[in-house]
Write a structure and sequence with these properties.
Cofactor: heme b
CATH topology: Fumarate Reductase Cytochrome B subunit
Structural class: mainly alpha
GO biological process, one term: respiratory electron transport chain
Order of helices and strands: HHHEEHH
GO molecular function: electron transfer activity; heme binding; metal ion binding
CATH superfamily: Transmembrane di-heme cytochromes, Chain C
Number of strands: 2
Number of helices: 5
Largest sheet: 2 strands, antiparallel
Protein name: Cytochrome b561
Distance between the termini: 31 Å
Shape: elongated
Main location: membrane
Amino acid sequence: MNTRADMFHPLARALHWLMAILILSMLFIGAGMVASVSERHETLIRIHKPLGIAILILAILRIAIRLRHRPPPLPADLPLWQKIAAYGSHLLLYALMVAMPLIGWAMVSASGEPVMLSASLRLPSILSANPVAFAWLRAAHGYLAYLLFLTVVVHVSAALYHGLIRRDGVLRSMTGPARPDTSG
């Protein structure tokens, strides 16, 4: 499959948008879990765990694809501080997409509860039961969720800046090529 040099690889684009939906869903589900003490809490947890593992697997796949298919270069006229911010924010996003599910997995393991993805699919514990570790990991998971939310907001803002103000092709490199004008 040929890929244009100014575009992300098609699989990278597909994974980006799928993961955007999953991560936003996960942030809302997590907020609902924190705010709920009703029976909905258990339902949200049953959704949250397998979704987290799916995000972990997809993040690892995305990293592999990114290493195999380099992203298009940023515009040459982009100020250095914006290039550094772009690379740093992407690195932070990838780190959080891997760290958040691993911390959640470790947190459930440290709680002493089985790490169940469904009624019959159980993950191995990656930590022994430890209430102190559980409390620390729970706090870390929550703080990192806020950091992930903030990073997503900055990422979307930067994409809109590139697409609506600079119009430099950065947003289009992830959304796909512009459709040709067929009106005339």
